[in-house]
Amino acid sequence: MKQLPFVSLLLLALANMHPTKGHGQAGSADTSISRDDTKFVQTLIDNASPGDTVHLPGDRVYRIRTIHLRQGVSLRSNGMIKQLPPHVAEDFTWAKQYSDYPLFYGHNVKDIHISFREAHTYGEAVRLDSCERITIHHAKAIGDSTKLLSFAGFYIHQSRAIHIDHVEVAGYGMKRRSPDYYQRGTGIRIQTCQQIRIRGSHIHDNAENGIFLHSCSDVAIHGNDIHRNGMSGVQVAFGSMGVERDYRITRNKLFENAADAIDINNPEASRTVAINAYIAENISKGNGWVNGTETRDGSGIATLVGLKQVLVKGNRSEQSNRPAVYIRECDGVNVIDNKSDNFAEIVGRQGQIRLVKNTFTGLRVLRDLRAEKLQLDSNHIGYLALHNDIQVDSLVFIGNNLKGNINFHLEGSLVFKDNLLSSRSPRGAISLRKVNEAILSGNEITADTAVDALTIHGEASNVVVEANTILSTAACIRDEGAPELKVVGNTFARSPGNAPAPAFVSRSPNALLLKDNIYPQHEGIEAPRLIVIEQEGSVTMDSVARALL
């Protein structure tokens, strides 16, 4: 791109035709509100050739209404720009989402670089429609923060190959006042576009979302500071065609936005969109609040609805009011190595969901869950809330560190293997109420209350409990008549300093198998029966119960 020397000289000549007041900073060079530089700047652009750059020097304030961009002609302003107010007042509406008075307007143009030191605008700072290969870089756009229904700072429509690099967009719309409703005014609003890149930018204090994308594909949002916006930091919305593909949202800081950190929400319940999204290494803090009051939203890491093929990896979140990760109606979602001081929550119909090496305060699986497979590997989860009547073809827990009571009441199969579970709950460690088949193997289970550690109810079918170490104050296992229960090769132990109690209790055995288990030895006092059968039933067991020394 070549510099255009005569353009700067011409502009200086034109500028000298207008009165100025004093010298120094560009913002104070001229305080006249009657001057209109639109025609002069537009003439420079219209007289330039493709490949030229129009340069506005930094020794004055430029007062402009709307500049129409030309193909191949770039613009760089080192001076302050103050947009003149529109002739007719206008507001954002759903029927009219863009202004008729943007500062810079491009329609069906290509190959342009736009840079401006600082611009104060009434409409959008930049509006692009059907454009291609446009770069907006090192630009600062300030909106009207008193406006209730503001247009966006940047509005980009039906365009491709748009790069937004190291910009600041702030003050588009009035600051959100209520946790129950919000005003209009988005930092960057992009609709029906492809190949969007937003990086290294500061998008803050706008009335609605920091970045809003609708019906877009091939989007990368990287290394931005997105703070104190009136809705989500980043929101991805969906059209009717399911064209949304290939999103990378990485290494952003998302602080104190009034809704979610990242919201990717496909509301069409009849289909999931294979979005191929990568959400990684973002840092989030304090989302979902307005003046200290919770809003309805506020996920710390991401809200995911109606999606396929999503990887959420290595994000950090704290002090947000809603679940760190909220997943509804999804498939092929992998949540790996994230940390948060809040819950993860899984809701509705799911395909395959996998959580690996995360640290969450808890996990909530709500009653309406219908899933093919839910797998948890090597997570640290403070509290696990599994509501009754969930339906999961395969529920798998492997190598997790878990706290509190876990209540399993589901249609489907359960694998609970190599987990470390400790509970001080008055309900014990595990309540296996209903399951079609289950294997509990290789776990270390501790229940530090006067309640049985593992209770297996009559609706739990085809259960195998093998090679676990169970430490309990009361019974290690209580069988409430589960059919064909197999308890094999476990080590039962007594919590120190507690009165002796049976290690295994069966209320009414139903084809029960007890084999190769190791039971606690009681010294110095009368030992209780290690196995107690309370009612008649069928049971097969060792002829001699081995003692744990």
From TrEMBL:
It comes from the Bacteria. Coiled coil: none annotated. Gene3D superfamilies: Single-stranded right-handed beta-helix, Pectin lyase-like. Residues 129-265 form the Right handed beta helix domain. This is Right handed beta helix region. The lineage of its organism: Bacteria, Pseudomonadati, Bacteroidota, Sphingobacteriia, Sphingobacteriales.
